[in-house]
Amino acid sequence: MSAREEAIAFAVENAVGDFDEGLIRFLVERMMRREDGIFDRRGGEARVVAALIEGSHNAADAAELAMLGAAGADEAVVGLLLEMVPEALDKARAGTHAVLDVPLRGRLEGLGAEELRGLGFAIAYREYAMMTADAARPQAVHVPAGLEWVELDARRAERVYTFLVEAFAGVPGFMAAPPEEMARRLMAHVPPPRVLVDEAGDRLVGIARVKGPDGDGVGRVDLVARAASRRGHGLGRVVLDEALRVLAELGARRFSLDVAADNERALKLYRAYGFEIVAQDTVWRRPLRSED
């Protein structure tokens, strides 16, 4: 086994957050832009594998040092990640992005602040992980007249990139794969994403993508969005309810999702469905170019 494959195998075995083998391999094989973009550090009983992600499209024009897998005490893990940052900065500067993001997720998010500030980073945004506290099932919500839910097909998948860029404009943390990669990944997703379309079936109005329940019965709402032009029409509830319906049919007993900490409208909706904040992620950012 090559060093690269061994690092990937470690990351899969010790995945961070909701990363799984499919996502880890997608990031390494499709979203890195250099052969030396994998970082693998060990110290004592701790080990961290991370990747420099330069293939995503986002409003901040950010590259990201994404921790894929980690083992060891929290302080040791963050210490190893911090060792990677100067090298990641040098490599990212050789690319085309404007900033480098370094996320610290879950229980790690409060660590390394002083060191990151010393390296020129500042907090860019925060995200919440939310979960329902019980086995509540979604309530049926009437789909507005003239709209219907259908399974995503190849023709519509080609239009999802533009749809999501418009829907998530200004939302921190939204990072999209290039259009062709996004369409390919959407079509390969299990279960197939659901899209809300108009009567003619030509216009995308909403999308819901979920990840089936894990060993604890927790199903993940991976993606919910409604058309930017339909903001304020109550479609957020319609799209979320479809996602929860699919998860319930898959046997999920509880539901989880992530949301930008400053997205008050979404937080209000999710809390109405019984979601509670269970963890917080902090994303640190540093410019890659001189402002002179």
Q: What order do the helices and strands come in, and which of them pair?
A:
Elements: H1 3-13, H2 21-31, E1 38-43, E2 46-53, E3 62-71, H3 74-93, E4 99-104, H4 113-118, E5 122-132, E6 147-151, H5 154-167, H6 179-188, E7 194-198, E8 204-211, E9 218-226, H7 235-249, E10 254-260, H8 264-272, E11 275-287
Parallel strand pairs: 3-4, 9-10
Antiparallel strand pairs: 1-2, 2-3, 4-11, 5-10, 5-11, 6-7, 7-8, 8-9
Helix pairs in contact: 1-2, 5-6
Largest sheet: 11 strands, mixed
Q: Please provide the ordered H/E string of secondary-structure elements.
A: HHEEEHEHEEHHEEEHEHE
Q: Give the CA-CA distance, first to last residue.
A: 46 Å
* CATH homologous superfamily caption of the largest domain: Gcn5-related N-acetyltransferase (GNAT)
Return the CATH architecture of the largest domain.
Answer: 3-Layer(aba) Sandwich
Mean pLDDT: 93
CATH topology of the largest domain: Aminopeptidase
Q: Give, in spatial order, the strands making up the sheet with the most strands.
A: 1-2-3-4-11-5-10-9-8-7-6
Structural class: alpha+beta
Just give the CATH class of the largest domain. Alpha Beta
Alpha plus pi helix count: 8
Q: How large is the radius of gyration? A: 19 Å
